[in-house]
Amino acid sequence: MAINFNKAEFTASYGTVEQLPRSIKPEVAFAGRSNAGKSSILNKLLGRKSLAQVSKNAGKTVNINFYDVGSIYLVDLPGYGFAKVSHKEKDRWMNLIEGYFQQRRKLCLVVILVDIRLDASPLDINMVEFLTELEIPFVIALTKADKLSKSKQSEQLQKLKQQYGLESDQFIITSATTGQGVDDLRNLVAKACGK
Q1: Residue 91 DSSP label
Q2: What percent of the chain is predicted at pLDDT more than 90?
Q3: What is the pTM of this model?
Q4: DSSP state, 76?
């Protein structure tokens, strides 16, 4: 069975690690700060306007959401950091994210979404270090590229490569508005899952 990005279906939402179903097919997880544009990129990737909820207020994704795209699941993790919620709720999100990664799952790839206009944040650096330690493959999708000129995008990429200590092939420059980098991201997801 192939990956069918355009026929994605929302499967379920889970609020605790204990509720998570057994991993039965390859998964690609999407992680990032609450204001990184995660839901917008997911919708663009899936060719849908509002499958993943987009909000002007950061922190709309509060649970782990699973989307069935044929032969794999895309997994939308709660955003971390920025959102105006209680410390208790932020702790729940972090426990949920860590609990997900520490389970024995068929995880092929994690896409970390980062606003291209911002310097590397300690939270994103922590995520990179956490995934490296667990030996989980990841790529950083730099979002909101439409806000910058092509030359400024290249400049920011060079700066972020240094800040994260990563190579160019671990980044994809994307825009949910123009679709820049979305096909590359689809191809990367398919390749990571052996499809």
Answers
A1: H
A2: 63
A3: 0.90
A4: E
